[in-house]
Each structure stands twice: as C-alpha cells, then as structure tokens.
Give the backbone structure.
Amino acid sequence: MPDSSWKRLSARTVSDHRILRLREDLYRFEPADVEREFVVIEAPDWVNVVALTDELDVVLIRQFRHGVGCVTLEIPGGVVDEGEEPAECALRELREETGYSAGRAEGVGVVWPNPAIQDNSCHVFLARGARRVGVPRPDPLERIEVVTTPLARIPALIREGKIRHALVIAAFGMIDMLGPARGAQR
C-alpha cells in the first residue's frame, strides 16, 4: 500500500551491472516539504529451493560468496531469467547447481530480500522427492560442493552459525510454518 506522504519527483540510473542496476530516486516528504535522495537496487527476482529426498535429507550447497568473502552453506537458488516462471527456475537451478531433480517445485511463499533498498522478490519453493540424476552443471565461475543433511539437523546448523544466509533461514522458516500437514513430512 503506497504512502501518500512520499512523492517521487525523479529517478535516474546511477550504474548498470550484470546482475543489478543502481537507481537514485528523489522524493518529497509531505507535509514537511522535505526532499531527500534514496538509493534503490533494481534486480530481477530470485528463487530459493528447499529440496528434500525421500529420506528427508536436504540438498545443500557450499560455495564462495564475494560479499562476505567466504564459503557459505545454503540451498540452491538463483536469478529468474526474463520470461521464465519462478517454479521452472527453481527446478532448473536445482538441476544445474546440484545434479538433483524433482517432479515439481511447490511454491511456499515470497519474501522481499531488503525492501529498504531493493525492488525484487525471492520466491521460495519446496521440491519433494529430489533425487540425483546427473552431475551438477554450474555456471563457469561457480565452484559448488553438494552436500546432503537430514532435515532435522537444519535448526542446529542455523543455531551453530553454519547456515547464516538470511534468505536460506527465511526459506526454512517458511517450510516449518507449513506444519506437518503440508510441510516437509511425506
């Protein structure tokens, strides 16, 4: 729901990068009649997929992340290509990054990664019955290690700080909120 106190006066692209654009917006806050610039990161939508095997093991990946300068433990995910449905993207990213496949990806919810400065959404999916069907086919500049762990171990990995990626933790929280009737139980 828009707030009529804020009126955007202008928007200009500051820089354009391969995965995002940086935009600067000038807003007027009324009734104080104060103007201020805000920076917005324009990015395509993303997906995250919690893939579960029939044994209720979670398919995880380890990869280097430049923002924090270290290897992180996370779930498969990536950028939704133009014209691609998020569910298709979830299954594609699962296959490319891990070599696992699932019959379908069930939409669990959508989160805004950081609405204060970003304009995109992250779609969260649950893929049950994941099975290894081949070798991973990551992007040329990705080095990914695929690991599986029991779903029951995930809360401990989060508590121990071994999973620290906020969107990954949000995805597991959304799966947990489904409860036994719809969640990870088979």
Q: What stands out?
A: The mean pLDDT is 93. The helical segments are 86-98, 154-159, 166-177, 179-182.
